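Appendix C. Worked example: DNA polymerase IV
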Amino acid sequence: MDNKTILKQLKLQAALMELHDENSFKIRGYQNAVFNLDKTDIELGNLSLAELEKIDGIGKSIAANINEINQRGVSTALEEYLKNTPEGIVELLDMKGIGPKKIKVLWKELGIESGHELKEAANSGLVAKLKGFGEKTQQTIINALEFKEANANKLHYAEAEKLAEIVIAEILEIAPDIKIEVTGALRRKMEIIEVIDLIVGTDDIEIIEDALDDAENFEQVIEESGPITWRGNYKALRIPIQLSFCEKEDFVKEQFLRTGSNLHLSLEVKDKLTLKDIVRQQNFTSEKEIYAAAGLGEIVPEMREGTFEIEAAKNGNLPELVEMKDLKGILHNHSTYSDGKHSLEQMAQHCKDLGYEYLGICDHSKSAFYANGLKEDRVIQQHEEIDRLNEKLAPFKIFKGIESDILYDGQLDYNDDVLASFDFIVASVHSILNMNIEKATQRLLTAIENPYTTILGHPTGRLLLRREGYPIDHKMVIDHCAKHNVVIEINANPWRLDLDWRWVHYALEQGVKLAINPDAHEMDGYQHMYYGLLAGRKGGLTANMTFNVLNVEEIGKYFAERKQKITVNG
Ligand SMILES: [Zn+2]
Ligand SMILES: [Zn+2]
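Step 2, the predicted output written as structure tokens:
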């Protein structure tokens, strides 16, 4: 069994144990095991019971539990808890902001056994009356349930992209003569995907429909399908699959019409005509030809949103978008010093192996106690190790950074002497995420004014499909970054993609540079650079406005000069 599945089961078991009032010592054992194993590199699925028992922080009974998961896919203990818990209650356990203890009260005292029942109880005010709940918790519950409802059956882009590849490969296997590609929001690389949207060029729709009927992984939903559309599911996954059929010779045109947003296709481009009009006038063999017929340069699929790209194309101002090969280094990453999975040396070596010139290490700062944030003495210790590694790995360079928590009032959480010991600082909010827009914005503005802040990290704290970000006035924040020469991060983690691409164009107009940062907590995390790149490109990000296209000398010089200004001014 893979680690992810094992951990998911242990985590669920810990929550269920809490729900069923088990011994708190035992519960903590499971929670600690999950915490420790989450950071391990060891493939738990390959270990024998004796080997599992030797892992630090795992007792005999948890080792036996994991062993059973390896053998038969699930442990008897978990099965037993699940048997004694209504399904709806199990689902409620992964609701944000409400722990198992509260869920137990809702279950036992109000007899709630599903999200639907909980929503009714909360809307009628019953929840607020429970001991330990109150109006605020009730509202949190309503928000969380609504958020969950709105996001059921959706995927973030990275997952959707992978799934689409699998689905396409499988369809090509059963119907090799077709032409099939992604289209719609998926082709526009939208951050959240509601349907795996595919366009199929075929000269015989029936053949492919019959083949899909016979394929066991595909299940058609007849009511939602039509004569040229197949809608259904793949392997019982919750996100729908949509296949739009067209003649092979119409493929370019049909894919084009299904890719651009409505706005993109219906803005006037030439002589009162829209792209929709132009594409229907004749047949085209490429999308480049379509744009040329409209007198425009080719607009890449990810930019076809109808925001600013048509105007830019009309004026001959289409941005030359940043590419993967432009990125010279990776800033904002974690190591085992705080909550990362791999050591500083592993993170650096891997970054170097991938061909990058530098790594910015930004472990959590001291307020982030839950993430083992660095107290001052450990900052010094890390800097000594960085100096040693820099000798060893030269000309590759590790820059000394920190992800400094932005405190409640916008202050960073070290004194100036410590702040001055870093090459650069990513300032991020990690706690008290429920401020109103005025307070949350002011908090960021204060952090941006701090002369030590180099980069503003994940500006809204959002986790796509899981948690809404705190509200901020994006314009004020971006304007303030422009004024104080602060770079804004596009956090490249597919769950974050924060700064949102919708604000990229505005940031660039204000002259604010953006850094594509993976916020990697393990070596594989560097792969997320690609998703950050896509988000940037979606908003029109060019290489010269991307902070980490600077090479190792340039960025070193930038950090040094910026720090020098602080000393001179202060
Ligand atoms: Zn962070
Ligand atoms: Zn981070």
